[in-house]
Amino acid sequence: MLRFLLGRLAVLIPTFVGVSIIAFSFIRLLPGDPVALLSGERVMSPERHAEISAQLGFDRPIVIQYLDYLWGVVRGDFGTSIVTKRPVVDQFFELFPATVELSLCAIIFAVVLGIPAGMIAAIKRGSFADQAMMGTALVGFSMPIFWWGLLLIMLVSGMLGWTPVSGRISLMYYFPPVTGFMLIDSLLSGQAGAFKSAVSHLILPTIVLGTIPLAVIARQTRSAMLEVLSEDYVRTARAKGLSTFRVVGVHALRNAMIPVVTTVGLQVGVMLAGAILTETIFSWPGIGKWMVDSVSRRDYAVIQGGLLMIAAVIMLVNLAVDLLYGLINPRIRH
Amino acid sequence: MAGFKISRRRVLAGSAFLLASTALPSIGWTQAKKGGRLVVAADSEPRNLNPAIVASNGVFFVASKVVEPLAEASFDGEGGLEPRLATSWEGSEDGLTVTFKLREGVTWHDGKPFTSADVAFSALNVWKPLQNLGRVVFKNLEAVETPDEHTAVFKFSKPTPLQLIKNALPALTSVVPKHVYEGKDIAENPANNAPVGTGPFKFAEHKPGEYYRLERNDKYWGESEPQLDEIIYRVLPDRAAAAGALEAEEIQLAAFSAVPLADLERISKVPGIRVITEGYEALTYQLVVEINHRRKELADLKVRQAIAHAIDKDFVVKTIFLGYAKPATGIVPQNDKQFYTPDVATYGFDVAKANALLDEAGYPKKDDGKRFALKLLPAPYFNETKQFGDYLRQALAAVGIDAELVNNDSAAHQKAVYTDHAFDIAIAPPVFRGDPAISTTILVQSGIPDGVPFSNQGGYKNDALDALIAKAAETLDPAARIELYKEFQKKVAADLPLINVAEWGFITVARDTVKNVSNNPRWAVSNWADTYVET
């Protein structure tokens, strides 16, 4: 197991360096001059431009800039935003809990609904329930996030008035962040109604962000389940006289879960991308909006630091998924 | 932060009490309607909130409640102005001196007194050298004398028209505190993100991605102002979601067309919500085709005329702006009462004429039906500028000009058009700010440094026009000055250094409970001291 873990970790290092090169160079390929943008409409003199470029280190050869950056990253220094002058790491960890909270809720929503739906569809293959669920899943998978979000806002918030439209909690409540997770902080605050407000703010974004993973997981579970159900050992189990619940829930499900766990892991990456759109629609103050704003300001440090940290999160999630396989299927460990 | 929590509750409790007290029937309408919280939509978070440095509407929208100018625009005030930090202004005969009498008994939000030294510091150290719009108006400002604490005497090295100064007061004269800025790098001062002013509201906090919060300034100089306890700018980057937030009563007001034009018809029918087109009269945006005169074809007046004839302005107004705009006749918008003249060359929609002009200019259609190709860069700042890009491409194709659309984000667009000049035609939304000398003459004047956005970066040079602009800038007699700017409009329309297509103001959508909305020509960027929320 330790060798397996070390092997996986070793692969992460070149991946991480690759991501850092891409993050570093792509943003510099975009046209636009961060120093000129800092000065706004009143255009700075060439001397002042050179002075600020030198302060920010943009006058050095690009390779030196990159190596310097990488050396910083190794020491945990992801640079300082050229707009806000604050360390990128600080800003990231202020905003990231909001994104994590939303993504976790969305993935739980997708798993809790998706796996049972896929199982039922597989067991009742060809039935109306199967067709209805898979049809709905196809629609959910094909739905553009921004459109689905606006539709839900108009219906659920605008016409029915059930849920709020934007933000993480009503502006009525204020408490300093402790964990950064609004659900937990609102409980800790002890303010009456705060937790309920936080939950109601989470409902729509969770549904919107969770819809595509839900559809993917349901379809994946169904096909994995169908495959497993046609295996010999399932027939043997049935022949032994085991109940359907035991056959499906214990024997088949565990084996069917391997591709599903992979899918869930991959969906985390998809989710972080989808979070950018969802966060914009629901004014959710997470890293998505922060990254988008930074691109338009050409805030190099934030973009490359943010990308690198998001990549690190995705890599760690995938590592966790790999380890999880080992638990589900001991053969993989060897 | 614990102290904050308590005070916030107290404010809420206090405001509820005050609101309840106004509901008593025995209290007449003269009773001040203090209290209340206004939640409005903000679609962006400016990186610098100092309106003395960045005089733009995105900054003013938040900062104008905190930092005040010398005077504000007014529908019925004398000369279209209402005094703020200055109570009167007077120019000398020779145009070299303007004397401002300043309001007494005004304090900064940090408790220090406001004096003429603050005005002198703002003018000489901020407006003139740093402000985006200060380039022309304060170009010749040499000194500001402060004979006493409430008098500021502006000394100019060349005659400067009082008319221009007056027209510039609302947008260009936000006064910042000398004691906060002196002796430090002004551009890097933390007060640029947490402004300290004299206005009816104090800057309380900014939570990035969430909101800005302003709180009532109890020591404001205006009698029984402000009415509101608090203004919250809720950051709603998605415009369609802003409409939903209004309907769900999460916000009470969305200015600057934060609700998309396409949603207005639907939302205007929602009970309790009204759509308001007033309050932007002094903030007219212009839809302009910028032309790179370095291109041989475009240096030819006939080609520019042909392009003007190829554009159906009525179609643009009806289809792109859904009627919330006007076709432009020239470089000064029609709603300007001082300078506008309709007596200029006009270019009606006429494809045949456009084709004939292009033939005459020596660019006949080739076998493929095309005459020449152009690179077209629409500004990304508004949906309408991008949509007009799509329209213009088709309109040009109809006369045989093959336009290639290049869509950039704002950083790339700014660099391509205004610094690198890597465009043939571009689409821009400049603002007319009440006087052609503030931000309009620079659209056609030569000699502007590279990189200045919304200025002549198309290499256009017309000595007669430059001379006219220079003369108008020094003409003191208002009537003579107006005549010169009418001449300016005629010359621009005749020579087409750029093509004005349409002009528009924005739309405010508000709940009926919000009162005193749009009651001045720059309402969205004014101080909202008299605005209140009825409960």
Count the beta strands of chain B. 22
User: How big is the Rg of chain B?
Assistant: 24 Å
CATH superfamily of the largest domain in chain B: Dipeptide-binding Protein, Domain 3
- Structural class by sheet pairing and helices of chain A: mainly alpha
Report on the structure:
The complex is a heterodimer of chains A (334) and B (535). Helix content of chain A is 76%, strand content 0%. The radius of gyration of chain A is 24 Å and the shape is globular. Chain A has 334 residues and is an all-alpha fold. Chain A starts with a helix and ends in a 6-residue tail after the last helix. Chain A has helices spanning 2-29, 34-39, 46-56, 62-74, 88-123, 128-142, 145-159, 182-189, 194-229, 232-239, 244-281, 287-296, 300-328. Chain B has 535 residues and is of the alpha+beta class. Chain B has three domains: 3-65 and 199-281 and 507-533, D-Maltodextrin-Binding Protein, domain 2, CATH 3.40.190; 71-181, Dipeptide-binding Protein, domain 1; 284-504, Dipeptide-binding Protein, Domain 3 (Dipeptide-binding Protein, domain 3, Roll). In chain B, the strands form six sheets. In chain B, strands 13, 14, 15, 16, 17, 18 and 19 form a seven-stranded mixed beta sheet that branches. Chain B has a four-stranded mixed beta sheet with strand order 1-10-9-8, with no helix packed on it. In chain B, strand 15, helix 12 (383-397) and strand 16 (401-405) form a beta-alpha-beta unit. The radius of gyration of chain B is 24 Å and the shape is globular. Chain B starts with a helix and ends with a strand. Residues 1-6 and 18-32 of chain B have low confidence and may be disordered. At the A-B interface, helix 7 and helix 12 of A face helix 1, strand 10, helix 7 and helix 13 of B.
